[in-house]
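ok new one. same drill as before - structure tokens go in, u give me an amino acid for every spot. 365 of them this time. try not to just spam alanines like last time pls lmao
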């Protein structure tokens, strides 16, 4: 399991450049004019994880298969998108299909790149997009509430629940706040997700800075960091231009380039980690002579559910999971030494998988 993150923002903030870097392709046309991205570009990319390489080396695995994540480059929204301005309606629908939003904000000055609003103010840009998403949600809620009236009068329990949740969202939206601030009980969680409101999606602000500020950020990204903290959202600082350059280099050249720029790692790695944290995801591994493979699951996933990510039969016929913690596997030099040292555990259906667990599932066919 990976996740789908939509890259959104005003035109000419660096969305397509970032997408090119993420997917290591030039599939998304990066051009200095609005709406150069007409159809959403979808890129499925490997998630870098040094732990997987270490496990493969110890186990002598012939193949390394990382887990994957999907990025969707969605064309630039503009003020009025909720009413269909620009290419608004189409792209609001694209956002609805994503699990999270990577909101790219322009935090650099460049007279050669036109800003659609004629100024550089990432906090105001964020407000423009958030407002359009809130307006779109309000319009959607009004239509849905009107369509539920008859069922609610008839006592339909599902309709009554939907009406209650929609009105809760409507209240905060009319107060100028996104629907994600609504406190939702566990009993309502599934129905709440099914509403697919745009402003319930978690947001990661991506501060696109000039090359010299790629490490520590700048005054504009500092403003975004303050805004994100106040909202309870996350942010990450990236130079999309640097990331695009790195994406065209071989691994050794990329490391040298990063070192010369004074950077410890590529922005992609920071972005993925931030995305994982945003959606409360984690990784477990399966390791053997044939392959070492990473799998993504939500935090709190039980062993049978984790097995089901590999194949439904693994979950249905689950017997137990032979489990070795990553640190034990590495420190002791592999599965057999870990087993001999008593570090392999047999875990049952109630076991909650930990990040980095090396697992082998036993199941009935």
């Amino acid at each position: 399991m990976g996740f789908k993150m939509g890259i959104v923002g005003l035109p000419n903030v660096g969305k397509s450049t970032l997408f090119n870097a993420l997917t290591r392709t030039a599939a998304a046309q990066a051009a200095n004019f609005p709406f150069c991205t007409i159809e959403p570009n979808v890129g499925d990319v490997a998630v870098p994880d040094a732990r997987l390489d270490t496990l493969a080396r110890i186990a002598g695995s012939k193949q390394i298969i990382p887990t994957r994540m999907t990025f969707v480059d969605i064309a630039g929204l503009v003020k009025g998108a909720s009413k269909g301005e620009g290419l608004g309606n189409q792209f609001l629908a694209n956002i609805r299909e994503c699990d999270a939003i990577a909101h790219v904000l322009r935090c650099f000055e460049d007279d050669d790149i036109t800003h659609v609003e004629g100024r550089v103010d990432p906090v105001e840009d964020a407000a423009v997009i958030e407002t359009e998403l809130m307006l779109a949600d309000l319009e959607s809620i009004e239509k849905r509430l009107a369509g539920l009236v008859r069922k609610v009068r008839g006592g339909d329990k599902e309709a009554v629940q939907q009406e209650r949740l929609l009105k809760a969202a409507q209240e905060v939206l009319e107060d100028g706040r996104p629907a994600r601030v609504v406190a939702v009980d566990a009993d309502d969680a599934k129905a709440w997700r099914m509403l697919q409101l745009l402003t319930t999606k978690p947001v990661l602000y991506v501060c696109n800075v000039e090359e010299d500020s790629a490490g520590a950020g700048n005054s504009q990204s500092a403003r975004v960091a303050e805004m994100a903290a106040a909202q309870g959202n996350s942010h990450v600082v990236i130079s999309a231009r640097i990331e695009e350059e790195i994406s065209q280099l071989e691994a050794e050249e990329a490391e040298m380039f990063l070192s010369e720029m004074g950077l410890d790692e590529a922005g992609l790695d920071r972005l993925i980690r931030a995305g994982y944290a945003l959606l409360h995801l984690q990784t477990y591994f399966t390791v053997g002579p044939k392959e070492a493979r990473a799998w993504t699951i939500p935090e709190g996933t039980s062993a049978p559910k984790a097995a089901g990510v590999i194949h439904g039969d693994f979950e249905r016929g689950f017997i137990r999971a032979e489990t070795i913690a990553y640190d034990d596997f590495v420190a002791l030099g592999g599965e057999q030494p870990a087993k001999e040292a008593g570090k392999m555990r047999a875990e049952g259906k109630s076991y909650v998988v930990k990040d980095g667990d090396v697992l082998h599932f036993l199941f009935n066919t």
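Confidence is low (pLDDT under 50) at residues 25-38. and btw The chain is about 40% helix and 20% strand.
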